[in-house]
Amino acid sequence: MKKSLLILLACLTLFSYSPGQAETVTENDIRLRDDLILNLLYPSIQKELEKQYGEAKQFECQKIIQINRLPVGTYLFNVTVQLITFEDAHSPPNDLVTITFNNETSQDWHAIDFKRKRLKENEIPKLCN
What we know:
alpha+beta
């Protein structure tokens, strides 16, 4: 009886072993990745805001909305960033800006799409969370 139980336990142990480790991505890992991407894109974001507004703009609540690889297996990407512009000490007018950047044609990131929407004051807190 003991021998059968030990053989059963050995078989269960052998067949339940998985050589691959389960990969766990935490919210902190995602935030860290997004912060790195935003840091790398910061000069391109500033350049595009200046181009669109005719002057340098301050912004806050920046976040990565989407990342797409073009085509699979390459290091070419579309990265869509969303942010809120403001004047002076975080004063209106505030715009919700969405910019899609691409690195397909050069090593540098360049904007391929720019959208902006004027925000009402009550919309801002919802977007910064």
